[in-house]
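Supplementary Note 3. Input sequence used for the single-chain structure prediction.
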Amino acid sequence: MIEINKYFEFDLENTRDFLNDEEKENREGKLKLGDNFIGKEIKSSNKELFDCEDCYGNKYVLKDNSDLHIYSSSKSGSQIHTLLIHKFEDGDYGLWLTKQAPYYYEDGKIVNYFTTEEATVGEITAINKNKYLQEENRIMDDFLWIYAGDDIIFPSEVEEQQVKQGEGNSDGVGSEAGIVAAGGAVDTKNGEEGENKKGKDSIVDIGKDGKLYVCHGAILKCSKGTVPCTLNVIDKHQVYLKSKPIATVDDSKPVNISSFATCKRHDSPPCTPKLSGKWKGGKESVLVHGVPVLLKTSTIKCAYGGTITIINPGQGLVSE
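The predicted structure, written as discrete structure tokens, is reproduced below.
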């Protein structure tokens, strides 16, 4: 088992060309071929024999059995060396071939691929939960090594948490951040009355330090999927949260939850979620046309064994 901040080094002038690791081995490390850590600027190749190539001239071929072959020439160019990674999945050793890494480095900033949010490296590493990026030397040579399952906290998420805890503005009472509905479509069971404002009913904030409501555009994660998925809320009830359609426990159909790319079950087939009923853990006391609204802590099961959770609710101001 390698330590997470270690790397495998291969001397291409000698004969150690193959990496024959076992399934249980920790793949959260880096690969160094000669003088270069590989992973940077991997792009589709225009050569028929190869799938991808990187900025160092290494060529990548991903076989049907998921074995990854990396071809690299010696310094003299007279010999081709092959590095073999068995049962490769995107994110192994920080390599991303068929999918985009969830975070990447660009012009001194770290960018969230799914939300396009960005922050400087200094702002990111100043957050305690991101300290591992420095401790494990994840940023080198203008490149960010990201492994499957990594999470990076952005300053906006910290600010949203502070707002929720009362260290900023109030939680959207009577403001755009509130839940706004047309024609009395929203109901509460705890006796709270909607506040009539400009012909619309607005539910005020129900307590503080609660669980965040979920809206269209929330980011979902499946325990058996390989990349996150965006929640699609069909705007049929005209109930909005920060100008986005609010989600309910009924948003549990293929049109709402499309795909998490590849399923981690046997043979790694394309992900086609087979959802088991409705979301669990909705807000029973706040209803949209009689249906409980969704909370960040809500979950739903897939018949293939995955548990789908909400990693970003699509907004950070309005809580139960």
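DSSP finds three helices and 25 strands in the chain. Helices lie at 121-125, 132-135, 155-164.
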